[in-house]
Amino acid sequence: MSDSTEFGDGTRAVRAGLPEPVKHEPSLPGPVFAAHYHLPGDPTGPYTYGRDENPTWTLLERAIGELEAPGQDGAETLVFSSGMAAVSAVLFSQLRAGDVAVLPNDGYQALPLVREQLEAYGIEVRTAPTADNAQLDVLDGAKLLWIETPSNPGLDVCDIRRLTEAAHARGCRVAVDNTLATPLGQRPLELGADFSVASGTKQLTGHGDLLLGYVVTLDATLMTAVQRWRKITGAIPGPMEAWLAHRSLATLHLRADRQSANALAVAEALNGRPEVTGLRHPGLPGDPAHKIASQQMRRYGCVVSFSLPTRAHADLFLDALRLVDGATSFGGVRSTAERRGRWGGDAVPEGFIRFSAGAEDTDDLVADVLRALDESAR
Ligand code: PLP
After folding, report:
1. 20 to 30 Å CA-CA from 330: which of 17, 25, 155, 185?
2. In total, how many domains does the chain have?
3. Are residues 93 and 156 in the same domain?
4. 274-306 pLDDT per residue, tens
5. Which of 81, 82, 84, 207 maximizes ligand 1 atoms within 8 Å of its Cβ, making it the mutation to test the pocket?
6. Ligand 1 pocket: which residues have CB below 6 Å?
7. pLDDT given at position 3
8. Whose CA is nearest to atom 4 of ligand 1?
9. Ligand 1 pocket: which of 179, 212, 338 to mutate (most atoms <8 Å of CB)?
10. β-bridge partners, 197
């Protein structure tokens, strides 16, 4: 499928990474559980030791590469044990003491921890907001620009192509965290980025039953260092997780379509409610991020963020929801929501809610949200 740019997202998703059909074999071979492989004589690949290679990863890596970089035969993908393993692999394999890295100051809440660690290794870290392409202002002298768009949880969007052109003009590499968008929502490598990195724990796999991460690049030289990092840290996914992830990719287009439609419907229902402030969803025509999102995204993702007036109001709302589980994370087929301030890491109001739209029937989900809002306002 790697040369099949003529196919649509759904066709590519259901076939992504599948091997050539073999009579009497399943279309997606089962997970290969192996710590080592038969390896008499000289140790030649492709499969030598279970921390370095696994046939189940190979198929999944091919599938993710086909979705992130369709038609690009040179795309290289590596899967990891979690999104953070993938994020760390890129940052820590590409940067050395004395280098400068630019991170968003409104990205995933583990980034400040990563920042501390980078600084402990002598790497200078600068941060700027995602909105208004503010990272442009701190690029001079940087070795690596880290972009998270849409940002989690604030849902700001920056212009990947513009930032990438500015970074490349300064000899700076660019990595984009593509977790929220998924490869069906946006393809950072086509917009010029050097790396697309993501947590596959979220919508990519979509069932809330596994952790996974991945890195994709078109530059084999860059990937050599990332692969070395995976080897020395051993941050590898289990074969069962890799297989489940691959199986789940077949429905990514269905889930992404339904979930982004549901997110937009929920956002539209919240829009104009007097108790709701700070409503954000990149698909809302009036959203500050909509213009640039509509230019670089093909689906707007399943997350909606907004605030209710107080912490107590937000808690009442969350308790009143029947079809939405209280949980952290996002992207699953069952809607989830949480009061983000309960973790203390994000600079958000006490009543700030991150809502992840699942694959429920749209009318049911919207009715549940509106009923819970009414109940929490009493
Ligand atoms: N990147 C983003 C944008 C995330 O939201 C998350 C997790 O929420 C991660 C990376 C880390 O992923 P994981 O939890 O799979 O390590």
Report:
1. 17
2. 2
3. yes
4. 999 999 999 999 999 999 999 999 999 999 999
5. 84
6. 82-84, 87, 108, 148, 152, 177, 179-180, 199, 201, 211, 213
7. 55
8. 108
9. 179
10. 177, 215
CATH of the domain at 339: 3.90.1150.10
Segment 2-43, tens digit of pLDDT: 456 789 999 999 999 999 999 999 999 999 999 999 999 999
Radius of gyration of the chain (CA): 21
- Residues 10, 116, single domain; the answer is yes
- Kind and range of the H or E run holding 196: strand 195-199
63 DSSP assignment? H
Q: Which residues contact 215 (CB under 8 A, 6 or more apart)?
A: 77, 78, 80, 86, 89, 90, 195, 196, 197, 223, 226
Among residues 154, 175, 209, the alpha carbon closest in space to that of 345 is found at: 154
Which portions of the chain are predicted below pLDDT 70? 1-4
**How far apart (Å, rounded) are the C-alpha atoms in residues 284 and 357?**
14
Encode pLDDT of 127-155 as tens digits.
Answer: 999 999 999 999 999 999 999 999 999 99
DSSP per residue, 344-356 = S-S---TTEEEEE
Atom of ligand 1 nearest to the CA of 179: 3
| Torsion on CA atoms 191, 154, 214, 59, rounded to nearest 10 | -80
**Of 194, 215, 249, which marks where a domain is finished?**
249
- Please check whether residues 180 and 325 belong to one and the same domain: no
What is the predicted pLDDT for the residue at 2? 47
User: Which pLDDT does position 209 carry in this prediction?
Assistant: 97
Q: What is the C-alpha separation between 223 and 200, in angstroms, rounded?
A: 19
Residues 112 and 130 in one domain: yes
User: Which ligand 1 atom is the nearest neighbour of the CA of 212?
Assistant: 15
Question: For residue 36, what pLDDT is reported?
Answer: 98
Ligand 1 midpoint to CA 206 (Å): 13
Atom of ligand 1 nearest to the CA of 211: 15
Q: What is the pLDDT of residue 347?
A: 83
Tell me whether residue 160 is exposed, middle or buried, using C-beta atoms within 10 angstroms of its C-beta: 0 to 12, 13 to 18, 19 or more. buried
- Choose the residue to mutate in 80, 105, 152 for probing ligand 1, maximizing ligand atoms within 8 Å of C-beta: 152
